[in-house]
Design goal:
This protein has 61 residues and is mostly helical. The chain is built from two helices and no strands. It has one domain.
Amino acid sequence: MDKKDRNKWTNKFRDLGKKKGSRQDFIKLYKEMKKTKEEKNQDYLETENQSWKDLVDDNEK
């Protein structure tokens, strides 16, 4: 995660703590954070695989 993303999520958790959020609220926020992290990671892997395939010549396969 980028530094800005970490700050964004940290601030959300802190705000929820100040509001005396319930355990379920924290769980929902945590799952949302993990979901966005996995989506970014999946996008990165897809672009990484595409660029690697472009580098391999058809003759070498």
